[in-house]
Structure prediction request, 290 residues.
Amino acid sequence: MTQATLRGRAVPAPGLMGTVLMLAARGIPSLPLRAGKVPFGNCPTCAGNSCGGRPNMRTPGPCHCPGVCHAWAAATTDTAVLTSPAWTDAWCRAVAVAYHPGGAGLTVVDLDDADAIAWARQTLPATRTVATTRGEHWIYRGTMPSRNAVRPGVDIKSSMSYARYLGPGIGALADLPDAVRALAAKHPPLVRPGPRAVAVPAQSSGRCPHRTPVFLERGIAMAEQRITAARSAVHATVYGAFLAVLSTHGRCGCLTDAHVARLFTAAQAKGETARHCMDAWTNARTTLGL
Prediction:
């Protein structure tokens, strides 16, 4: 449980708030994560960024509403905000603390499995490391654009991203090396899609011109199974499954929102966030020139 009660009123767990205030004192912007290790959604006033408080979410910090809005952009070091009634309510329901690496002048290389860790040890300079559920976070001093799936089992979290806080880690911080910057440089910038960009535009026939509907259904089912069966390198597996589906059906117009939703649901059941799914889908489309 992450909450307790004080005279009938819910209060955050002491350890959780201790972590939040410690991060604020060190200049590290934090935010609460709910079940599934995802940020709290925008309040009704800010739904769809209608408040205009964080257009394109390019700067950290809360918008003018008192709620915990705009995902990573809500991260703050302002203790008055962190302990405000709206945020206290969120902390009571939170399961973990996250932080905005870029807002703290940091970059996190998220290594998802043993193979990714072995690669980092052979390729990257030693720095502060933090153990995660499936691998390690390697933390460097310096910021850069965030990218997912820059290589199998490796994500980069810095600007416009968040990472779960799992402790101070061990080792001294090293400066962000060119080797990490080069990983992101090998990948084209993400093109942020519109609200319905997850669907491939349908042709007038509504049918795949080179395969039967049964073939499409089998392909979606196989992609779901591939994601569900992943025991490691989940990020890379999700990206590979998306790439396989799009390489076969991305140009024929037979994919629908329902098909894409099934793939996203399978990925989120393995712990991926909606943002990671969208980024992986966008990266796959970009790779194929769709």
Remarks:
- The mean pLDDT is 80.
- DSSP finds nine helices and twelve strands in the chain.
- The radius of gyration is 20 Å.
- The first strand starts at residue 3 and ends at 6.
